[in-house]
Design goal:
The chain is α+β, with helices and mostly antiparallel strands and about 70 residues long. The protein has one domain: Alpha-Beta Plaits (2-Layer Sandwich), CATH 3.30.70.20. About 25% of the residues lie in helices and about 25% in strands. A two-stranded antiparallel ribbon has the order 1-4. A two-stranded antiparallel sheet has the order 2-3. Strand 2 and strand 3 form a beta hairpin. The radius of gyration is 12 Å and the shape is elongated. The protein starts with a strand and ends with a helix. The relative contact order is 0.34.
């Protein structure tokens, strides 16, 4: 299973990642960073496509692909 990691202090809560995710697994977390922005979280199984990371204007997302996801993408 692939994993999405949010660099919470960089996130501005714009939710562009939520809109970009084809699996619909990203959502607001209910947690806020020190700047007062609500950060996002992963709430389902990630395919490892990294659409969310590409869309993020603040470079606040890292996607770690599982071996299974890499093999399936090829």
């Amino acid at each position: 299973m692939s994993r999405v990691v949010f660099l919470e202090e960089r996130c501005k809560g714009c939710r562009l990642c939520v809109a970009a995710c084809p699996c619909g697994i990203l959502r607001p977390s209910g947690r806020f960073n020190r700047h007062g922005y609500e950060v996002m979280e992963q709430a389902g199984t990630c395919s490892g496509c990294a659409s969310c990371a590409v869309m993020c204007p603040d470079v606040a997302i890292r996607v770690f692909r599982s071996v299974k996801a890499k093999e399936g993408a090829a």
